[in-house]
Amino acid sequence: TVTLGFSAGFVFDILMVLAQKFLDEPKPVLAFIESTIAQEIKTGMIGITIAKHTTDLKLAHYLYSGCLMAGAGRCIMAILNPDYIPFYTKLYSDDLHASAEFLCEQTRFGATSDFYSSLICRSFPIFQQIQDPIYFNRQPYVLRHRGAKDFHRLAAFICLAKNLSKHVLTIDDPKDPRIKEKWLRTEIQDIGLSPDTLISIMKNVGS
Description:
Layout: H1 2-22, H2 27-51, H3 63-80, H4 84-94, H5 98-109, H6 113-123, H7 131-135, H8 141-145, H9 149-166, H10 178-183, H11 195-206
Helix pairs in contact: 1-2, 1-3, 2-3, 2-9, 2-11, 3-6, 3-9
């Protein structure tokens, strides 16, 4: 896990170098990359906590680095297109479901950040195994329908970690509707973690 985490960090170092080398005004993109790194480290730490609460995740050692790699494609999009940063800022604030975010990116830019994230994974042998879970981390049900159980589980847990990272809520009642509205959204309602488990995860994250 440590080696995978360092390798993911190295990917972001490369992206920052690319922004500095090829952009006339790299500062906004560099700030976006730094913000993405901070957000995905937070998400990855939640991912580690999730992994401690499940025994049904064979690729658990990829959960932290997978959360980081899932954000790398956004940095590529920001480098390639100056319109991406304001687009993503609004997309994030609109709080759409993950699959809807995917479709919005695809419609607006003709490609998604998940595509670029998976492309980066394909380029690094250490991450080649998880290129499909990274591509489908906002649509994990696609992998379930394909019968790729281990890949589906990893993609779904990355999606869950992102939901929990974005919505850090103090919840005590397992019947609180916000659990499904913000954490267990449509894409991952079959993930197999109870509301009580999610509440426990978030309490551990906050402690």
